[in-house]
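Example 9 (inverse folding). The structure is encoded as follows.
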């Protein structure tokens, strides 16, 4: 079920733009104002729940840190488990790691080796607040597949479409809002 124009406007208006954060030239999309707006959050989560009810998912995986919030709410609504994909060094048990390139240097994400249990090929939805270049999400999807599950779709609240992050992503991508 797609969002009505009014619902879409309520979500867009609840997200705050912070110019020049964390550095000059970046417009940071601040979702703390969306989280603080129960009507906007409810419309968003209803929309995502309706979309994914028919997917027959086994898990939702969320990317550190804002993906944890939307991902956990969605997992609970779908009645399935939530798995965190974390920045390096945060997970306590045995992990699998994946590096990805940043503008300068690289970063690394990790997942617990047994995150999706014994069953091979668990169907996993990956969630984050925003896709920019796509580097973080591609690394996260790759980790999910590496530990024996299957990342069936990557879902974002926002997509910075001009950065073409979905290109070269071998997982289906869904974004609620596309920003040009
Ligand atoms: P990327 O790997 O380039 O797709 O970057 C995605 C990650 O960086 C996500 O976890 C986002 O939360 C964060 N991010 C990148 N650009 C922005 C932005 N303009 N506003 C808010 N978060 C951003």
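The amino acid assigned to each position is listed next.
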């Amino acid at each position: 079920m797609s969002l009505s124009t009014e619902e879409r406007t309520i979500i867009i208006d609840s997200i705050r733009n912070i110019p020049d954060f964390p550095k000059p030239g970046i417009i940071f999309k601040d979702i703390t104002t969306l989280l603080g707006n129960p009507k906007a959050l409810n419309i968003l989560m209803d929309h995502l729940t309706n979309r994914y009810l028919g997917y027959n998912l086994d898990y939702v995986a969320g990317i550190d840190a804002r993906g944890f919030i939307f991902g956990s709410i969605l997992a609970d609504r779908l009645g399935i488990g939530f798995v965190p994909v974390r920045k390096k060094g945060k997970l306590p048990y045995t992990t699998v790691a994946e590096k990805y390139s940043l503008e300068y240097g690289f970063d690394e994400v990790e997942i617990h080796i047994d995150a999706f249990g014994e069953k091979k090929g668990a169907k996993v939805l990956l969630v984050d607040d925003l896709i920019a270049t796509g580097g973080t999400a591609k690394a996260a999807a790759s980790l999910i597949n590496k530990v024996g599950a299957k990342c069936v779709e990557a879902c974002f609240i926002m997509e910075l479409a001009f950065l073409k992050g979905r290109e070269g992503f071998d997982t289906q991508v869904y974004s609620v809002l596309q920003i040009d």
